[in-house]
Amino acid sequence: MPASARLRAEDLSVAYGRTPVLDRLSAAIPDGALTVIAGPNGCGKSTLLRTLARLQRAGSGQAVLDGKAIHSQRSRSVAQRLAILPQSPSAPEGLTVGDLAARGRTPYQSALRQWSRQDAAAVAQALELTGMTALAGRPLDSLSGGQRQRAWIAMALAQDTGILLLDEPTTYLDLPHQIELLKLVQKLNRETGRTVAMVLHDINLAARFASHVIALKDGRVHCQGAPEEVVTEAVMQSVFGLACRIITDPVHGNPHVIPL
To answer: Please, which residues have CB within 8 angstroms of residue 114's CB and are 6 or more apart in sequence?
Structure first.
């Protein structure tokens, strides 16, 4: 496991009813890296992300943030250090991009601390980083799918946390918009130093954009490491049941899966 990791899972087991999803899973999200959690459907990818974000309780084991069990920490304190964008988020009808981004400042609001210049600056920076400043006054429901995803990421960035979790952020986007969004996430990781972990289904996109890959199988970590260590013919066969050849992407230099 990475030596430096503010966020980690320790011996996690999670079940929905009588159906086990995670089985004594241990993993760490490397600080400052762009980590992709990959694996076949039903292997526990989203459940792991939700448990790490304090949205799902473990049956046993624990998620740990900054050295303490995350469920023992106050919600506001966690939300000031970790942000999550879940699958298919929803917002009230008519909400504008700017209003949505401002909701990212909720963890910093209280009866004693109302909206401040710091809040306004954080929202303005989040809109600028995601290229949404010019659309701040537009209703979310008037945007394209790619623009909406950028707006939701702006909200998460306005939360101003060191850790950002994204659960299948490219769902429902066509390939050009998937690439656009992942380039944005990669840029944010590199330029702001945020630790990012996201669930992706497309292993070739994972290999292209991730600096660290965690491959799950049957609720456990099958292997983890740099893309070239995880995206191999043996792992693709073992984890996905996929016979393939791995070539080097002639443009980006990362491993690329060619199914047989």
So the answer is: none
Phi-psi region of 148 (alpha: psi -120 to 50; beta: other; left: phi over 0): alpha
Residue 257 falls inside a structural domain: no
Enumerate residues 6+ apart whose C-beta is below 8 A from 66: 6, 81
Query: For position 48, what pLDDT does the model report?
Result: 96
Residues sharing a CB contact under 8 Å with residue 44, sequence separation 6 or more, in sequence order = 14, 21, 22, 25, 216, 219
Whether residue 254 is contained in a domain is answered as no
What is the Cα 219 distance to its own chain's centre? 18
Domain-located, residue 249: no
Q: Is the pLDDT of residue 111 over 80?
A: no
Looking at the structure, do residues 72 and 182 belong to the same domain, yes or no?
A: yes
Closest by CA to 151, choosing from 170, 133, 175, 167, is 133
Number of H helices, E strands in the chain: 9, 12
- The pTM (predicted TM-score) of the whole model is 0.92
Mean local confidence (pLDDT), 39-57: 93
